[in-house]
Design goal:
With about 350 residues, the protein is α/β, with parallel strands linked by helices. Helices cover about 45% and strands about 15% of the residues. The structure holds ligand TLP.
């Protein structure tokens, strides 16, 4: 069976050009700051994000954790969206390892936070009963909100509220380039108001490993120690940076193809009875839809799709997520739609008979 793998853009494989660059990479000991390829990638990342400095990390999860460790003290409170990846998918690292209390504010359908709710949720320092708020975490694009994008204005509104209260803002920009391509703005327009941003090389950009944390020089100097503490100080990591440099040159503009495929996928899914989504709301490469419980349960739908050769994941009980990426062609999208339509029809038919 030829599977169509829509589980995640993390499944993208390194290109031949990346593999060649990795083999030829100039390397050194990065714990000593002496890996030339890592240094080049960090400079490039900082420049792209409009920040003073950057630090290479093993993963997006490590970048987000190190950002929290760097900005916060134990016993602080941090605010994040109730659909945030840092809340749902990072094993509770902020609480378990950084010792902060996580307070949730609502994400709207696009993954945005309401600046007024953020303002009201911030707790000041100086009252011994309160954990003081030290950080607000944003996410762009927003994974659990169907890859929704936040404009520079959306981001600025939250940053203005946070900064007025002396609170820092971290942006989980794992897919920041998807947002930049969708909005047709440079990535740094989306990061100019936040204090730091993390972005990933190992998602739609096709690298095997890697994420960059970017911020002020002072922030990055402190983050370097936290990264060492959590075991993220790597030695000849330049072999990984070499792939990252190729990715930044060759993998960003093509994200528009993934977005077009996701739009087509969403439109097709919306026409299948028993599936619910609004294709107009899909902005980047993540499509999330609901399965009508009258048709079947989400987990059973996933099993049936797998048997039909379509791999997907589930962000919620009746929800299915499909992610387009470099290995999914427009023909794959049509084939996936045909398979999904067949599975849904068969399940509806079986229900009808039952
Ligand atoms: N997301 C993964 C899963 O964890 C859900 C995926 O397949 O989408 N921030 C965001 C917004 C992410 O989507 C992810 C990964 C991360 C951080 C964590 O990155 P890694 O996997 O490199 O630790």
């Amino acid at each position: 069976m030829n599977f169509i793998d829509l589980r995640s853009d993390t499944f993208t494989l390194p290109t031949d050009e990346m593999r060649q660059a990795m083999a030829a990479a100039e390397v050194g000991d990065d714990v000593y700051g002496e890996d030339p390829s890592i240094n080049q990638l960090q400079e490039r990342a900082a420049e792209l994000m409009g920040k003073e400095a950057a630090l290479f990390m093993a993963s997006g999860t490590m970048s987000n954790l190190v950002a929290v460790l760097t900005h916060c003290q134990r016993g602080d409170e941090i605010l994040m969206g109730d659909q945030g990846h840092m809340f749902w998918n990072e094993s509770g690292g902020a609480s378990a390892l950084a010792g902060v209390q996580v307070r949730l504010v609502s994400n709207d359908e696009q993954g945005r936070l309401d600046p007024e709710e953020v303002r009201k949720s911030i707790r000041p320092r100086g009252n011994i009963h309160f954990p003081p708020t030290s950080l607000v975490c944003l996410e762009n694009t927003h994974n659990r909100c169907s890859g929704g994008v936040q404009t520079p204005e959306d981001t600025k509104k939250v940053c203005d509220v946070a900064h007025a209260a002396g609170v820092k803002v971290h942006l989980d920009g794992a897919r920041i380039f998807n947002a930049a391509v969708a909005l047709e703005v440079p990535a740094k327009a989306l990061t100019q108001d936040v204090d730091d941003v993390s972005f990933c090389l190992s998602k739609a950009l096709s690298c095997p490993v890697g994420s960059l944390l970017c911020g002020s020089q002072e922030f990055i100097d402190q983050a370097r120690r936290w990264r060492k503490m959590v075991g993220g100080g790597m030695r000849q990591a330049g072999v990984l940076a070499a792939a990252g440099l190729v990715a930044l040159d060759t993998m960003i503009d093509r994200l528009a193809d993934d977005h077009a495929n996701a739009r087509r996928l969403a439109q097709g899914l919306a026409n299948i009875p028993g599936l619910r989504l609004d294709p107009e709301k899909m902005q980047t490469n993540i499509v999330i839809f609901e399965v009508d419980p009258a048709v079947t349960s989400g987990p059973d739908f996933i099993k049936a799709l797998l048997q039909a050769g379509v791999k997907v994941t589930y962000p919620g009980l009746q929800q299915i997520r499909m992610v387009t990426h470099r290995h999914v062609t427009s023909q794959d999208v049509e084939e996936a739609l045909a398979r999904v339509a067949r599975v849904a029809r068969e399940l509806r038919g079986a229900r009808g008979r039952g």
